[in-house]
Every structure is written in C-alpha cells, then in structure tokens.
Amino acid sequence: MGLYQKLKQSSFVKQSPTMKLMMYIGNDLIEAIQLEVDKIRIPGYVGNFKRTLKMKYHELISQHEDPPDFLVTNLLPQSRQTDNMNS
Questions:
Q1: Residue 44: which residues within 8 A CB-CB, separation 6 or more?
Q2: How far is CA 65 from CA 25, 26, 59, in A?
Q3: Contact at 8 Å (CB) between 85 and 13?
Q4: I need a labelling partner for 64 at 20 to 30 A (CA). Which of 8, 23, 44, 54 fits?
Q5: Cβ contacts of 64-69, under 8 Å, gap ≥ 24
Q6: Which candidate, 34, 24, 28, 20, places its Cα nearest to that of 54?
Q7: pLDDT tens digit string along 20-58?
Q8: Mapped to the 3 state alphabet, what secondary structure does 4-71 carry?
Q9: How confident is the model at residue 74 (pLDDT cuts 50, 70, 90)?
Q10: How far apart are CA 75 and CA 19, in angstroms?
Q11: Is 81 helix (H, G, I), strand (E, B) or coil?
C-alpha cells in the first residue's frame, strides 16, 4: 500500500467537518466558537451563541456604528476538500 492510500485511510483525513461561528466587527475577527455539527439544525442553537457574543462584547459593539457580522464556516481538512471536488 502506497503512502497516499495510508494517508487517505488515516483518522486525520477522515475527520468530520469543523464548524465555527465567527463574529466580526468591521474587518476584525472578534471571536470564533466551535459548533456541534449535529445541533446546528436545532432552532435557536446558533442564535443562542450570537446573543451570548453580543452581550459579552456589548461595550466593544457600542463603540462602532456598524453592527457585528456573523459567519458560520465549515472547515474541512485540505485533502478532504480535494476528494469531495473530485467525486
């Protein structure tokens, strides 16, 4: 078995996607929170984190005229992204 096949079968390559909720104010990343992928579809799950971040950074938010932006990212290992695109 070649090195590529061994890497493809390793647990590193087979990791599940990592999803994060990221809060930005302007161009600055303020905080990123790890999300449980299985719970993202539950109503209010992501909203609860957004409310918590808004309360935690209330003072910082009040110093800017624009509201914070939130982004949910799905981070995959590089080799898995390549495999998915080739499928």
A1: none
A2: 10, 10, 12
A3: no
A4: 44
A5: 64/25, 64/26, 66/25, 66/26, 68/23, 68/24, 68/25, 68/30, 69/23, 69/24, 69/25
A6: 24
A7: 999 999 999 999 999 998 898 999 999 999 999 999 999
A8: HHHHHHCCCCCCCCEEEEEEEECCEEEEEEEECHHHCCCCCHHHHHHHHHHHHCHHHHHCCCCCCEEE
A9: confident
A10: 6
A11: helix
Q: 83: how many CB neighbours lie within 10 A of its CB? A: 13
The span from the CA of 19 to the CA of 38, in Å, is: 10
Q: What is the pLDDT of residues 4-14, one digit of tens each?
A: 555 445 544 44
76 CB burial (10 A radius; 0-12, 13-18, 19+):
middle
Residue 79: name the closest of 3, 1, 22 by CA: 3
